[in-house]
């Protein structure tokens, strides 16, 4: 591998370059940090347009499902029964054991990665 870049540097510095327009720096600053602030509701949230649309759609679907549950008593009873059964399943010993095992694995990976990262940052392996 050739690590001698002197000839390439001389060729690059010998290229004729155009001079930049006199107001280039000001134009860049005006279009970036000097741009006018956005007005309205979107200015106060650290979210983009798609995120706001997604949250709005999710809230609309949730409201639609809530209205269906309020309107249909039989469906509300069935949904409540399923929710109670799902919560009751969480209290079974086998389920709690699997949840504890999964949490232990996550904690193990998190601590292991933190220890390995701190060793790398300090220069030890």
Task: Outline the secondary-structure elements.
Blueprint: H1 6-14, H2 24-31, H3 41-44, H4 49-71, H5 73-90, H6 93-122
Helix pairs in contact: 4-5
Structural class: mainly alpha
Oligomer: single chain
Helix content: over 70%
Beginning-to-end CA distance, first to last residue: 29 Å
Choose one word for the global shape.
flat
Q: Approximately how much beta-strand content do the residues carry?
A: under 5%
- Rounded mean pLDDT score: 82
| H-E order | HHHHHH
The tally of helices reads: 6
Largest beta-sheet details: none
Spatial extent as radius of gyration: 30 Å
What is the count of β-strands? Answer: 0
The low-confidence runs, each spanning 5 or more residues with pLDDT under 50, are none
Concise overview:
This protein is mainly alpha-helical. The chain has six helices and no strands.
Can you describe what's shown?
The protein is mostly helical. The chain is 74% helix and 0% strand. Helix 4 crosses helix 5.
């Amino acid at each position: 591998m050739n690590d001698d870049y002197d000839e390439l540097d001389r060729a690059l510095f010998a290229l004729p370059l155009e001079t930049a327009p006199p107001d280039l720096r000001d134009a860049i600053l005006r279009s970036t940090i000097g741009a006018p602030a956005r007005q309205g509701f979107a200015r106060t949230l650290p979210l983009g347009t798609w995120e706001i649309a997604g949250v709005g759609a999710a809230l609309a679907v949730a409201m639609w499902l809530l209205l269906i549950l309020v309107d249909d008593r039989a469906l509300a009873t069935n949904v409540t029964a399923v929710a109670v059964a799902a919560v009751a399943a969480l209290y079974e010993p086998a389920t709690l054991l699997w949840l504890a095992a999964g949490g232990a694995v996550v904690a193990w990976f998190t601590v292991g990665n933190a220890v390995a990262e701190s060793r790398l940052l300090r220069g030890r392996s």
